[in-house]
TrEMBL record:
Coiled coil: none annotated. Pfam families: Aminotran_1_2 (PF00155). CDD domains: AAT_like (cd00609). One of its GO terms (cellular component) is cytoplasm. Keywords: Aminotransferase, Pyridoxal phosphate, Transferase. GO terms for molecular function: kynurenine-oxoglutarate transaminase activity; pyridoxal phosphate binding. The keyword Transferase applies. Residues 24-374 form the Aminotransferase class I/classII large domain. This is Aminotransferase. It comes from Labrys okinawensis. Its cofactor is pyridoxal 5'-phosphate.
Length: 384
């Protein structure tokens, strides 16, 4: 057995979902919405499977989807890419990340990772032969610092794996933070693999600015997006990769031996969806922000200290500030067993030097689901 994968423990998502089932708990652990997704996009997928092409599509993706991706990012983020040579479609963003890491890393290359991090990153980096160098971010603001980057970057740095907005922390990095990171990437001649799947799920009037748009980054950035997050269709697994042609050419060679292609009916539906009017994207954000605000207010009313949620489906609480002298893993196990609410300990997203006082809830749920969770959480916090 391969030691990297054989040595992995069961994911925290599977562990907490199993406990939620065992205790008949409200599951605010795993991050997927209750919403079925936009009807017109789903109808396009159904129509395409019945009347369209169901054999192998082109390896890089349907031309109509690649054009739609290029037009979408030019429209929303002023990112100009050639759909024929700088855009590729993958079976989800995780596959895109794996393709990029396998294509870009040689054994012994160093890869900068920011903790807390999506749990797929570290095993993929190690399987590609990369040597991880960690930047540990701290709540409540999770900011990048020159001191931390100085400690992580070196002459052996090949890749920086950067998640913005950052899922476990629900933070959208500022222009100042990103400019600092771009400075280091340029100085050390490193390629940034940017996991930006939450780019449309940002709140409070924010507009996502991608790292690829910062000075010196156009030719050294792999930008990755996800239709699943944009359209609340997490099971579809349709990802986007954008990069300068010399980089994308090599990533595509990795892609052809992972999945080769992605269901053509889903690609056709996503091509349609990316061209939807602005009202869809602003409305989606507004609905999620309403759920965030409702849940945050409910938690605060129960005595929990919440951390800022600037993006994603998630809201974090600070245990210590909530008067709870317990580590996050113990708290989450007690919470699901005694109070019938499943959450995720954020320490699960660290490889070392973990922060153990932050717990993550998913608020992308129906009002009645969030109300049930809040009812079960009464009396848990101890803050006066």
């Amino acid at each position: 057995m391969n030691s990297i994968f054989a040595g992995l423990s069961t994911t925290i998502f599977e562990t907490m979902s199993r406990l939620a089932r065992e205790h008949d708990a409200v599951n605010l652990g795993q991050g997927f919405p209750d919403d079925a997704g936009p009807l017109d996009v789903r109808e396009k997928a159904a129509e395409a499977v019945m009347t369209g092409w169901n054999q192998y599509p082109p390896m890089l993706g349907l031309p109509e989807l690649r054009r739609a991706i290029a037009e979408h990012y030019a429209r929303f983020q002023d990112v100009v890419v050639d759909p024929d040579s700088e855009v590729m479609v993958t079976s989800g963003a995780t596959e895109a990340i794996a393709d990029a890491l396998m294509a870009l890393i040689e054994p012994g290359d160093e890869v900068v990772l920011f903790q807390p991090m999506y749990d797929a990153y570290l095993p993929l980096v190690r399987r590609a032969g990369g040597v991880p160098r960690f930047v540990t971010l701290q709540p409540p603001h999770w900011r990048l610092t020159r001191e931390a980057l100085d400690a992580a970057f070196s002459a052996r740095t090949k890749v920086v794996l950067f998640n913005n907005p950052l899922n476990p922390a629900a933070v959208a990095f500022s222009d100042e933070d990103q400019a600092l990171l771009a400075e280091y990437c340029v100085h050390y001649n490193a390629i940034a693999v940017c996991d930006e799947v939450w780019e449309h799920v940002v709140f409070d009037g924010r507009t996502h600015r991608p790292l690829i748009g910062f000075p010196g980054m156009r030719e050294r950035t792999v930008k990755i997006g996800s239709a699943g997050k944009i359209f609340s269709l997490t099971g579809w697994k349709v990802g986007f990769v954008m990069a300068a042609a010399p980089i994308l050419k090599v990533i595509a060679k990795a892609h052809q031996f992972f999945t080769f292609t992605t269901p053509p009916n889903l690609q056709a539906a996503v091509a349609y969806g990316l061209g939807k009017e602005d009202a869809y994207f602003t409305g989606m954000r507004a609905d999620l922000q309403r759920s965030r605000d409702r849940f945050a207010a409910g938690l605060a009313g129960l005595g929990f200290a919440t951390l800022p949620s600037e993006a994603s489906y998630f809201l974090n609480i600070d245990l210590k500030a909530s008067g709870i002298e317990e580590d996050d893993v113990s708290f989450c196990k007690r919470l699901v067993a005694e109070h019938k609410v499943a959450a995720i300990p954020v320490s699960a997203f660290y490889a070392q030097d973990a922060v153990t006082t932050v717990v993550r809830f998913c608020f992308a749920k129906r009002d009645e689901t969030l109300a049930a969770a809040l009812a079960n959480l009464k009396g848990v916090a101890r803050r006066k």
